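During the no-cost extension, the postdoctoral fellow (Dr. R.K.) reprocessed legacy sequence entries with the updated structure-token encoder. One reprocessed record is reproduced below for audit purposes.
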Amino acid sequence: MSGAAPPHSGRRRIIGALLAVSDAVAAILLAADLLVVCGSVLLRFLFNAPVEWADDVARGLMVGSSFFGAASAVARAENLGVAFFVDMLPASVRRVVDAVGAVLVPVIAFYVAFNAIKLGWLTTGQTSGSGLPLEWTFYPMGIGALLMTIFALDLFARRPLRDMIAGVIVTALIVGLYLAWDGLAPDTVPSSGSLMLAGFFITLFGGLPIGFALALAALTFIWVEGTLPGVIFAQQMARGIDNFVLLAIPFFILVGYLMEANGMSVRLIELLQRAVGRMRGGLNVVMVMSMVLFSGISGSKMADVAAVGSVLIPAARRSKQNPGSAVALLAASAVMAETIPPCINLIILGFVANLSIGGLFVAGLLPAGLMALALIAVSIVFGKPPVASDQTEPQIPMSQLWGGAIASFGLIFMIFAGFKSGFATATEISAFAVLYAIVVGGVVFRELSLTNAIHSFTQAATRSGLVLFIVAAAQSLAFILTLQQVPHQVGEIMLSLSGSHGTWLFMLLSIAVLIVMGSVLEGAAALIIFGPLLLPVAVKLGINPLHFGVVLVISMGLGLFAPPLGLGLYGACMIGNVPIEQTVKPISGYLGLLLLCLLVIAFVPAISTALPHALGY
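Re-encoded structure tokens follow.
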């Protein structure tokens, strides 16, 4: 019938409306968090009137914003998983594996939603230390997870009917086989810990998004063991991100998006291009230097890669450079920038391992400088003279370029001065960095419109929701591992190996573990699980914890951007619009160079400890 609405159009409108609500709530909660943190600092500093409830409110708002942002990420299918092994399967098998994953995501999300809402009901009438109701944290978490469930079901329903049926049947068969085995021969069933680890690696390599693979691993133990209530799982997920320190993550991510929207990114990169872009290998030198500067501002690796890559990868194409090599250098520069403050992974490691975040920031500077110099030297030695572009682009006046550079360096100075002076914490500094970026873009450059600012808040809420959902899921798995005394067992094994072979073996094993796990896990998850396992052992062996923390973060970064599994490399290839096959050869050389730098950093502790000692950390 002509003019009839297409099938499923009503469902599409409903999902679109729910996504708009999810985006709006996540962005509003993030903006409210910004106001709470900035207002609290100003009241404390100007009027000596600290707001006792500010930390509790800020943490609750962050939990809610994270889960609504994570729901929006699910709706847009932005959750990353390891696709390398699945892509090797025959097409028919791959469709079934993907369908099973599409069944598992809404199941996990609904379990989170149900138990978070139940936890909110159970805590009704209870209050935090400052007197705020506890349910105000758990109900928004549950509603966000419920939206996540709806979006995941919609993605599942978009598949061909045959694939949906196959996914449900295969999932039911796996569960049925386990129940039958447990009922007929319970003594032969593997332990809950073994099933947990097996399920984790099977689903991870099967392409299930990382956050959901981590959550499913913890749930597998809870379901098989049958002694822990589901609300413990939801409580641990909330506990994983219910910390004021982690609020620096969405704020620094927001700074990165605002910089891109307000013109600071383009101005700074253009200034670097004019300064060194005409030298031998100049464009590659500009790329490394840009990553150094942007990592010192936004804190988010993928925000840095997006800001630099969106400008310099097209420039590489125009100058007849191999775009695969350019993307490889961009990814290697992101590894180098892992320890340049205010890196999010340094913040996460400081949080989970109870280390000074300011100390980690300072400890990472010289190691990052060593790796940057190595990449710049290689770019110059093996680089080619620049080829004149066939396209003529409008030139930004030098006065505007210097204005952007001064504004960017002002932001860097504010971050470091805030830490050194003790005026504010990492979270409070990140909040004022957001205000600074808004003022520069809206008042000084007049390029940050209200629409762009709202879009930046929405993007930041979604991206930070992705990261923090992984952090929350990793915390639930870390809780299970602690129950099984895995940290103690790992510590004993590492100590015995080091006792018989020396500390050097422990350091090499730690590097190998983080490289491997960094390649199959998102960086935050690898650090949350293995940081608390390895750092106590390092301290017992006399290794400086700040030095060891820097080594862990760099090792994780190498894995994150290493082919063929590194998720960071896939992200860089997406930004540069380059097939990963074109980057494998060049990035192998860059990562080999950075591995040599890492070994020097690992076995020359002064590179990491000199500045912290000099500055009193």
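The chain has two domains: 9-242, 246-390+398-448+484-614. DSSP finds 27 helices and no strands in the chain. The remaining legacy entries will be reprocessed before the final report is submitted.
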